[in-house]
Design a protein that fits this description.
The protein is built from 12 helices and 12 strands. It is α/β, with parallel strands linked by helices and about 350 residues long. The strands form 2 sheets. Strands 2-1-3-12-11-4-5-10-8-9 form a 10-stranded mixed sheet, sandwiched between helices. Helix 1 runs parallel beside helix 12 and helix 10 runs antiparallel to helix 11. It is globular. Bound molecules: nicotinamide-adenine-dinucleotide. The site of nicotinamide-adenine-dinucleotide (NAD) has 18 residues, from loops. Nicotinamide-adenine-dinucleotide (NAD) binds next to loops.
Length: about 350
């Protein structure tokens, strides 16, 4: 029976890369019935919102979505669709594998990291009080010796529930994907209560996996240095929201940047697979940008669906096309104005052709 998957093409260059990813995923032979749903800038005129309810209903119904990037309008009163999706569907785990593929320009050769970032709380919970507000004044009054009177305040909530949930996700991911080690990362030497709680929860969860998956802890500043110096020592990293955001971009940088970095936001009832990069609107309609990140997000989606063999084949095909370096987009060529660069859909064609060979 075919899987039903919500396909959100998105806006900007989203529809072009979504079409490339759809074709590449279909070429694996896994039967998928796509439930195409429109979200993004173009929907504002049609539906009055960039995220119509029909999109959320579809994801809830199907449990799995592949999503192209969506532009966040600046200063027009609309929330980011991406943030709204994560919050509404409680997609609490942000998964970002960062792996070096030969042929992608990078300073490193053997990076194979998976970053698991908590997506729902921490300083990103949106509990902020502006300079001079009554709330800020009341909070400053709690510890006037520690806060200047002209401070704006952000609150950092870290809960036991969310910490246990994300660390459990990281260990389960490690087990399911043959990973050997989970490293929890915080700044618990300074934030003893919030980050201390995260480490405590992580240690408790880790006990249940003893003998199957290794566990270790790092402080985030040291972690950044270690990732730059010896990334090959690390495997799965699990972090609270803010550190996770920063470290996952650092890790994407280690493997050659946005064009090849896939991602997923996963909850108990739904999972949305998407590239890390945005809608690159300046290239809209030019058949120019690299479809690899969304195709590799499709690889993650296939694994999530239990189609590991098809996922491995698609990943090998992508890797082979990149390693050959012939049918690749401008960003994967040695020079960005290389006239031999191919377009989005031609790179997808090359991946599909390679997929038939690696089968
Ligand atoms: P961006 O990732 O869209 O583009 C930055 C630059 O990176 C581009 O100009 C391009 O040079 C390069 N780039 C990005 N994707 C590429 C690809 N696939 N192939 C080749 N080159 C690529 O970042 P931005 O310009 O900061 O954001 C544009 C819009 O996208 C914003 O509205 C932002 O809010 C939104 N955004 C959406 C998502 C999402 O939907 N998940 C994520 C990030 C940003």
């Amino acid at each position: 029976m075919a899987y039903r998957v919500t396909l959100i093409p998105g806006d900007g260059t989203g529809p072009e890369i979504a079409e490339a990813a759809r074709r590449a995923i279909e070429a694996t032979g896994v039967a998928i019935e796509w439930d195409v749903q429109q979200a993004g800038m173009d929907q504002i005129e049609k539906s009055g919102t960039p995220l119509p309810d029909a999109v959320l209903d579809s994801i809830r119904r199907n449990g799995v979505a592949l999503k192209g990037p969506i532009t966040t309008p600046i200063g027009e009163g609309f929330r980011s669709v991406n943030v709204a999706l994560r919050q509404t569907l409680d997609l609490y785990a942000c998964l970002r594998p960062c792996k070096t593929y030969p042929g992608v320009r990078s300073r490193y050769t053997d990076v194979d990291l998976v970053i698991v970032r908590e997506n729902t709380e921490d300083l990103y919970a949106g509990v902020e009080f502006d300079l001079g507000s009554e709330e800020a004044k009341r909070i400053i009054a709690l510890a006037p010796e520690k806060m200047r009177p002209d401070s704006a305040i952000s609150i950092k909530p870290i809960s036991e529930t969310a910490s246990r949930r994300i660390v459990t996700f990281a260990f389960e991911y490690a087990l399911a994907n043959g990973r050997r080690k989970v490293t929890a990362v915080t700044k618990a030497n300074i934030m003893k209560f919030t980050d201390g709680l995260f480490f405590r929860a992580a240690r408790e969860v880790a006990e249940a996996y003893q003998g199957r998956v290794e566990y270790e802890e790092r402080l985030v500043d040291n972690m950044c240095m270690q990732l730059v110096q010896k990334p090959e020592l690390y495997d799965v990293l699990v972090l609270p929201n803010l550190y996770g955001d920063i470290v996952s971009d650092l890790a994407a940088g280690l493997v050659g940047g946005l064009g090849v970095a896939p991602g997923a936001n996963i909850g108990e009832k739904a999972a949305v697979f998407e590239a890390i990069h945005g809608s690159a609107p300046k290239y809209k309609g030019q058949n120019k940008v690299n479809p690899t990140a969304l195709i590799l997000s499709g690889v993650l989606m296939l694994r999530h669906l239990g189609e590991s063999e098809a996922a491995d084949r698609l990943e090998r095909a992508v890797a082979a096309v990149i390693a050959e370096g012939k049918s690749v987009t401008y960003d994967l060529k040695p020079h960005r104005d290389d006239p031999t660069a191919v377009g989005t859909s031609q790179m997808a064609d090359a991946i599909i052709a390679k997929l038939r060979q690696v089968t």
